[in-house]
Design brief:
10-stranded antiparallel barrel; mainly beta; Lipocalin; 2% helix; globular
């Protein structure tokens, strides 16, 4: 990783691309879509390839942008029980609720009867985009790959986009939008965290799910169970994924700081993370004598729940003409261990291991 200052994609343009996988775009002059039937279909979905999305079909999901605008997705089963209709819209606290929303989208997820695979088709109001693609599911994940046609200044634009979902629990999912760019591979554009909304008309996301044991408005504080000193093997990957460089590593954890040491080819190395903000939306300043001699700013969240005790931070940086990513995670799930992972997000490859420090008392 270089020490070049990280740069992020323009938020306005990226937000307009949100979930650019819909069905029928609705312009500001178009009538509002018909009301959606929230009733779960009577047909069993046990054998339905769409069951990976089943838990989304019982409510509204919202995420808030820095501008104050809220993006909302409404997922509903169609009467056939084998397709899902999704309405996307942007909501502003300052907008008169009687006026049309500035951005709307409609998506249809359905099962292709000839292949029994999941497909998505639709369009949205941004540049009159229309799109179509395929969806695959993993364990608590999903991914859609689509081609979207948009109106440009002098010609139509065809873009190849990927949307990835991680289903954290029944009240939250994390989603990321990426684009396939010639010569650069798969480039991250933006990511969001969606929470289940308590009301169809809510302009703000609800508080996190009830299994969170920290206040969403409190200042971030790393778990006291893991404060103190840790020591263990540090592995560093530079080129060959099968032959990491191994050295002894240490970590010292306090409320809002993580300091660590390791070495490479006999030369001591040190690093430090300093946290600020709320657990659900925090900021970190990171320095590392090997990876980031000039301070980097990362953003992320600290989740303390029955399922996941994890600090996750991310940033992007320029590597030549390409934009790469960097992820830092601290895993607190085991009381007797503390693990720090760093991943390099490479165009065309995704996240690959960069550092693993496994500490014990």
């Amino acid at each position: 990783m270089t020490t070049t200052t990280a740069t992020f994609p323009p938020r306005v343009a990226v937000a307009s691309l949100l979930v650019a996988f819909g069905s029928i775009a609705i312009s500001a002059c178009s009538p509002r879509p018909r009301e959606l039937d929230a009733t779960r279909p009577t047909a069993s979905i046990e054998a339905n390839p769409l069951q990976g999305f089943a838990h989304l079909a019982s409510g509204e999901w919202t995420t808030a942008l820095a501008s104050g605008t809220v993006l909302r997705e409404t997922w509903r089963w169609e009467p056939d029980g084998r397709s899902l209709r999704v309405i996307g819209e942007s909501l502003s606290p300052t907008t008169d609720p009687r006026t049309p929303n500035p951005w709307r989208e409609e998506q249809i997820y359905f099962v292709d009867p000839t292949t029994n695979t999941v497909r998505v088709r639709g369009s949205n109001s941004f540049r009159n985009g229309t799109f179509e693609g395929t969806v695959t599911f993993g364990e608590k994940t999903a991914q859609a790959q689509v081609d979207i046609n948009q109106e440009g200044d002098v010609r139509h634009l065809v873009r190849h986009l990927v949307r990835h979902w991680t289903f954290v629990n029944n009240e939250r999912f994390d989603t990321e939008l990426l684009e396939v760019i010639d010569g650069e591979g798969l480039v991250p554009l933006v990511s969001w965290t969606y929470l289940r909304s308590s009301s169809p008309d809510a302009l703000h996301p609800p508080t996190p799910s009830t299994n969170m044991n920290i206040s969403p408005t409190s200042q971030v504080s790393l778990p006291t169970s893991h404060h103190g000193a840790w020591r263990g093997e540090n592995r560093l990957w530079i080129m060959d994924p099968d032959t990491p460089f191994v050295s002894e590593g240490t970590m010292a954890i306090a409320d809002r700081t993580v300091r660590y040491t390791w070495s490479h080819e006999g030369k001591p190395q040190t690093g430090e993370l300093t946290l600020k903000g709320q657990p659900g939306a925090l900021k970190a300043t990171w320095t590392d004598t090997f990876h980031a001699q000039e301070p980097f700013t990362l953003h992320g969240f600290l989740e303390m729940s029955a399922e996941s005790d994890l600090l996750r931070l991310f940033t992007t940086y320029d590597a030549g003409e390409a934009t790469w990513g960097w992820i830092i995670e601290l895993d607190f799930r085991t009381p007797s261990a503390c693990t720090m992972r760093m991943s390099n997000v490479m165009p065309g490859l995704g996240a690959v291991p960069a550092v693993l420090l496994e500490g014990t008392r």
